[in-house]
Amino acid sequence: GHTTGTATLCASGTQGPERDRENERRTSPGGRSGKEIIDMMNTSVGGRRFPCGSKASARGGVRSTGTQRNNNNVFGERGLGFPGGAKMVSSCRRSNPQRSQAVAARSEGANSNKDDERERLTYAGAGVDIDAGAELVRRIQALSKGTGVDIGGFGGLFPIGGNRFLVAGTDGVGTKLKLAFEADKHDTIGVDLVAMSVNDIITLGATPLFFLDYFATSKLDVDRAEEVIKGIVDGCAGSDCVLLGGETAEMPGFYADGEYDLSGFAVGMVDQADVIDGKSCREGDKLVALPSSGVHSNGFSLARKVLEVSQLDLHAEAPFETTGRTVGEVLLEPTRLYVKDVMRVHKSLGLKIKGAVHVTGGGFYDNIPRCLPDGLGVAVNKGTWEVPPVFQWMQEVGNVAEDEMFRTFNMGVGFIMVMAPEDAEAACAACEGSSIIGEVKVGEGVEFH
User: Fold this and answer.
1) Three-state DSSP class for 159?
2) d(CA 26, CA 1)
3) Taking the chain (449 residues) in consecutive chunks of 10 residues, what is each chunk's mean pLDDT?
4) Residue 76 pLDDT
5) Taking the CA of residue 386 as centre, how many other CA atoms within 13 Å lie in the half-sphere pointing to its CB?
6) Half-sphere exposure at residue 171, Cβ-oriented, CA atoms within 13 angstroms
7) Fewer CB near the terminus (10 Å): N or C of the chain?
8) In whole angstroms, how far apart are CA 229 and each of 25, 222, 351?
């Protein structure tokens, strides 16, 4: 909605197409800067006191002044800060386009079967141009030089004084939306939207505070929009944060009938002592994996291509499961929220998470190295976690190389914590379904054993 404010959070890029009509919603006048919001939470809101770290339900509203660029199909979120502002720390090192291209080359020939002459489906073949994404990242890195901003983390940290940082992240849902349109199921896609951003900012140790959304469509269907927003509210509730505000844009002729697009913006806070930055990762540290709920919200360009090859309808019973769920229900299963598990380990139990990874676009190969110092890589032990049958089905039906699967999908692992061996065991005991899947080694990259 249109609100006044003295600061813009997560506002980078160029203004989107001029809208014929914008709808104000879910915000109140009097937007505040990030520091004012934190100060407000230390005082009283509506007669109630909210100490810092609690979730105030008062609605202030921070105005979005532009459409943020995002490349999460391949490189995940780029943490962006205020140009000319104080230096913003990035939790992980920058994306490595050369590594991505090398993995792509390996994928072309990996796991070949001479008896199988079917075409191999790939992420690139499904329409995701990895080289173009890498080039854009390089150009943005060049543009950001001299601004005090380090590009490449899962989110960005901005100092607010008192040895504290605001942590911001933004993301969308991608072409998973296409399946939601086809299945006419809109009540959980909002959970995906929240999860993609809050799961990013907790990799830096941040406690999520609030969430903002952007909903755009050609012609507003109020009932359908309500379903989507309900999912966003549910996602915020599952992340212990609040939906602080949002924007509804009605743009006739811009989208196909019945379709819409979503963007989300999460803001959290972390004390300097609790920042997870990967700097203390050492050889021998363990990888604690938290299970995914399914495909989550990445790789759907390839997943939809596999679905096309299979000739299955979304309403057909999933042939790879015995649960009776339909193909659509399996693929649209909401992205798991990892906030409570990570906060339990990091804050309540006081165990040290040295590095953290949200396994999104780029899978294992492009995401795990982002939280490690130069000179370190990981060895992952296959068979130490359960791979959901939907991935095995996609690999078989699409004749997808194994390297391509691990580079595109989460393969049953949605979040990874790098921890010392003794802490890793305690974390596994505290997080249901978790397992130790490998360890840190000398030498860069991801190896499978």
Assistant:
1) strand
2) 7
3) 33 36 40 41 33 29 32 32 34 38 44 64 90 85 83 88 97 97 98 98 98 98 98 98 98 97 98 96 98 97 97 96 96 98 96 98 94 97 97 98 96 98 97 98 97
4) 31
5) 9
6) 36
7) C
8) 11, 10, 35
| Residues 64, 6 contacting (CB under 8 angstroms) | no
Instruction: Please compute Rg for the chain using Cα positions.
Output: 21
Helix (H, G, I), strand (E, B) or coil at 244: strand
Helix (H) or strand (E) run with residue 171 in it: strand 164-172
Smallest Cα–Cα separation from 15: which of 76, 72, 79, 64? 64
Say what the pLDDT of residue 153 is. Answer: 79
Map 35-68 to HEC letters.
Answer: HHHHHHHCCEECCEECCECECCCCCCCCCCCCCC
CA–CA separation, 393 vs 313, rounded Å?
A: 15
Question: How far apart are alpha carbons 202 and 193 in whole angstroms?
Answer: 15
SS3 87: coil
Helices within 339-382 (DSSP H only): 339-343, 363-367
Q: How far apart are CA 446 and CA 449, in angstroms?
A: 10
Q: Would strands 21-23 and 164-172 be described as parallel, antiparallel, or unpaired? A: unpaired
Triad 291, 332, 293: Cα angle to 5°? 10
**CA nearest to 162, candidates 340, 56, 59, 39:** 39
Tell me, what amino acid is at 192?
Answer: D
pTM: 0.78
